[in-house]
Amino acid sequence: MKVEKARIGDMPQIHRLVNYFADKGEMLPRSLSELYENIRDFFVVRDDDQVVACAALHVFWSDLAEIRAVAVAEEIQDQGAGAVLIQACLEEAKGLGIETVFCLTYRPDFFERFGFHQVDLMELPRKVWGECQRCPKFPNCDEIALVYEVQTTEGA
Predict the structure, then answer these.
(1) Contact call for residues 19 and 31 (beta carbons, < 8 A)
(2) CATH number at residue 103
(3) What are phi and psi of 72, to 5 degrees?
(4) Closest CA to 67 of 103, 121, 16
(5) How many CB atoms lie within 10 A of CB 93?
(6) Residue 102 covered by a domain
(7) How crowded is the C-beta side of 124, counted as CA atoms within 13 Å?
(8) Cα(95)–Cα(91) distance, integer angstroms
(9) 152 vs 69, higher pLDDT
(10) What was the pLDDT predicted at 17?
(11) Domain count, the chain
(12) Is residue 40 part of a domain?
């Protein structure tokens, strides 16, 4: 499975994919304008010209980034698309020199396979006070917060 950076033409497909799962209550919805604004964050897996999976690495600060909008079309789930996307996000974080990557999810077991561990959401104040306060679920978030400590090569 080949992972690529998203292109402009991918955004309507990413929008449909993400919001399909959002409509089922499995993730937060994303507007098309928000996706376009964050296009550089996105990785995709394609089947021919069709986006079948996506994930984004969003940088918050010099030491903190979030993996978000992870969505894999139902027909290819359990075939490794999600795993290659997470690996691409973690590699990019490492290349950027980011120390900590986090995610908010309803599927913590998926992220724990990569070395993420659960934390209290309040351990992520930049996320909570930067974005969470605008979420309709705030302050009663039911997603699970997880973090991953990136092994950077700086100083080695």
Answers:
(1) no
(2) 3.40.630.30
(3) -130, 125
(4) 103
(5) 22
(6) yes
(7) 25
(8) 6
(9) 69
(10) 97
(11) 1
(12) yes
